[in-house]
Amino acid sequence: MFYDLNIPLPEAAGKPNGRLSGHEWAQIAQTIERARELGYSVVALNQTIHGRLTPEHLQIWDTVPQFANSQRSWAEARAADARSSVRRGEIRVLRRLTAVISDATQGHSLSGAPANEYDLVAVQPTSEKILLAACNGTWEAVDMVALDMGSRWGFLAKQKIVAQALALGVSFEVAFQPALEGARQQWVCNASNIVRVTRGQGMVWTSGARQPPDIRTPYDIANLGDALQLNGDLSKRALSDNARAALTHAFTRTSTLRAVASIHQEAAY
Asked: Which of 150, 104, 97 shows the shortest CA–CA distance to 127?
């Protein structure tokens, strides 16, 4: 199975009680359908917020229309595993959160109940201090580190810090959309750094596609590894096994927390 865990929602979706227009949802539907046609089995709609997560950020998911030939994870039983098999001819659509964090106190909101409603939670660090917190387990609900691939970071992704994240099962995203938007040189620099510090382990390719033409076939994306001196097998895993591992991390985390909450509730009676 191939996964694209980053189909971005428009900026308005990242605001509390956000809403999107019918035209915006139609374009997202076309992008999802394009991904299905190109051989992806699972995609994640990516809601990006800046700062603290609140329950109001979840309201956007109540407004999502039914997409053709798809299964929405949040419309199924909450016990369903986001990694489980997909019906033939359909594509599974997941909920992803990306929190752009500039202050460490904002990250503590990822330890609350709203974060557990997402199939995948990513953090985009804006400093080395935030990167360290995202990698060392300071915040409970971090499944993926999503560094900005189209801009200079202003800090180093040190191998020692990255190793902490990999040891905890946290993945590192490499979205290729910035390379299509005129930031190819910066993208190559950033992506090469991630390949260097992860050695391809725990690295996940995503599209970041904002419209249907931005979706590429899984094999086209896997071939990007050649430009980064990443061997073909590791590059392909970044679209399949590693992406699945990121979802496994998220599912295990949320299932454990729900089990603990259930035990506490039973103990109260």
From this structure: 104
Report which of residues 85 and 246 the model is more confident about: 246
The pTM assigned to this predicted structure is: 0.90
Q: Write out pLDDT tens, residues 13-38.
A: 999 999 999 999 999 999 999 999 99
Of 84-88, 168-172, 233-237, highest mean pLDDT: 168-172
Strands 144-145 and 120-125: parallel
